[in-house]
């Protein structure tokens, strides 16, 4: 059975199961968009053109393309390797702002730092010249002040059920670690506050060491050289962590269920990960709005990148609404609602007792979990 065959199916052995590099995959698609392709697209919209050969349909493994179909798939013996992808949307109920929301997003509220542009605060060249704005902001965002959300504990529950292959996150808040997800299950694609390194000699420092200096309103300087200590989050102008590329090669062709949570799917190469699973693999988007949809032009050109959230969908389902509500809804339908509620309650009480976190988060009852999010394939 090849990686591109649904569980229980077999075909010729795959020659190479290594997924393409995200940048190369995206670039190859764009190179294929020539003038003739665009002309065919416009002609088809006007009814002047019919493709000579219809595209090969994607095999449907879901009994029905709906949230109920996703639930049945997860409960089946064929679903064994779930990958979760997460963005800022799973952490907003913890009190951490996302980056791009109007009025409340992080970029919108950086005027006080007198930056040439909002993104400069995460630009490595700007940081080397003027690190103070970043460390002032880091004091507001630093791990240790925020509790994991229901969404984080749903991911942990997938792990405890033996279903989680890997969790890929765009977030730098370390809340997956705080929620008790094992380190080997986490890929922090955009880096993390959990460790820091000197920019010059690369000496490593712990989260607590750097936190103490930042909260004293000082810039952390290496004890071995005059270099600045920088948390291991990925700035503009830096490469993604080696672990990100290494795990891609192991994980995505094994994936038999992809869950995308709280991401706009706008930032590359993370956004391209949705296309690295096998062509039959079901994909569930839990988000406030649709994201990652493939364009009609790419579809006509035979380039199947992106989610298909319309009446022609055969594997993609969207559960629109707040991520925590969506995860509670999904857990309830899977029969895990009470278990998730108990896990969140116990863990939050532990964090309040052991770490001194305030009980600021309200955990909704499981009884009204169903129906809090809007399911759609349209």
Q: What distance separates the N and C termini?
A: 32 Å
Radius of gyration, whole Å: 22 Å
Helix content: 25-40%
Low-confidence stretches: 10-34, 362-373
CATH class descriptor name of the largest domain: Alpha Beta
Using the 3D structure, state the CATH architecture of the largest domain: 3-Layer(aba) Sandwich
Strands, total number: 10
Number of domains: 2
Tell me the name of the CATH homologous superfamily of the largest domain. Answer: TPP-binding domain
Short description:
Strand 8, helix 10 and strand 9 form a beta-alpha-beta unit. The chain is 30% helix and 13% strand.
Task: Tell me about this structure.
The structure is a single chain. The chain has twelve helices and ten strands. The chain is α/β, with parallel strands linked by helices. The protein has two domains: 60-89 and 148-183 and 242-354, Rossmann fold (3-Layer(aba) Sandwich); 97-145 and 191-233, SIR2/SIRT2 'Small Domain', CATH 3.30.1600. The protein starts with 21 loop residues before the first helix and ends with a strand. It catalyses: N(6)-hexadecanoyl-L-lysyl-[protein] + NAD(+) + H2O = 2''-O-hexadecanoyl-ADP-D-ribose + nicotinamide + L-lysyl-[protein]; N(6)-tetradecanoyl-L-lysyl-[protein] + NAD(+) + H2O = 2''-O-tetradecanoyl-ADP-D-ribose + nicotinamide + L-lysyl-[protein]. Residues 1-21 are annotated as: Disordered. This is NAD-dependent deacetylase sirtuin-2. Its cofactor is Zn(2+).
């Amino acid at each position: 059975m090849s990686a591109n065959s649904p569980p229980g199916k077999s075909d010729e052995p795959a020659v190479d199961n290594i997924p393409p590099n995200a940048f190369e995959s995206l670039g190859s698609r764009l190179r294929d968009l020539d003038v003739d392709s665009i002309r065919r697209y416009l002609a088809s919209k006007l009814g002047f053109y019919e493709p000579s050969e219809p595209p090969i349909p994607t095999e449907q493994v879901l009994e029905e393309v709906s949230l109920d179909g996703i639930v049945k798939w997860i409960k089946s013996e064929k679903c064994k390797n779930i990958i979760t992808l997460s963005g800022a949307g799973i952490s907003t109920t913890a009190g951490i702002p996302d980056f791009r929301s109007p009025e409340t997003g992080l970029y919108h509220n950086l005027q006080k730092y007198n930056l040439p542009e909002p993104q400069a605060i995460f630009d490595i060249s700007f940081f080397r010249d003027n690190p103070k704005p970043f460390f002032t902001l880091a004091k507001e965002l630093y791990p240790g002040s925020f509790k994991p959300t229901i969404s984080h504990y749903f991911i942990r529950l997938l792990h405890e059920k033996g279903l989680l292959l890997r969790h890929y996150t765009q977030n730098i808040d370390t809340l997956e670690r705080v929620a008790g997800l094992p380190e080997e299950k986490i890929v922090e694609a955009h880096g993390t506050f959990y460790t820091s390194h000197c920019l010059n000699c690369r000496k490593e420092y712990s989260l607590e060491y750097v936190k103490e200096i930042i909260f004293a309103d000082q810039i952390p300087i290496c004890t071995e050289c005059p270099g600045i200590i920088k948390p291991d989050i990925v700035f503009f102008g830096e490469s993604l962590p080696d672990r990100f590329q290494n795990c891609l090669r192991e994980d995505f062709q094994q994936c038999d269920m992809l869950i995308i949570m709280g991401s706009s799917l706008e930032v590359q190469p993370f956004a391209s990960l949705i296309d690295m699973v096998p062509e039959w693999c079901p994909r569930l988007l839990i988000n406030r709005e649709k994201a990652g949809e493939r364009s009609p032009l790419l579809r006509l050109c035979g380039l199947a990148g992106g989610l298909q959230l319309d009446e022609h969908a055969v594997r993609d389902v969207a559960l629109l609404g707040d991520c925590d509500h969506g995860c509670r809804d999904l857990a309830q339908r899977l029969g895990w609602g009470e278990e998730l509620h108990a896990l969140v309650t116990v863990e939050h009480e532990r964090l309040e007792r052991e770490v001194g976190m305030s009980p600021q988060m309200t955990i909704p009852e499981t009884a009204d979990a169903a129906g809090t999010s809007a399911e759609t394939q349209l």
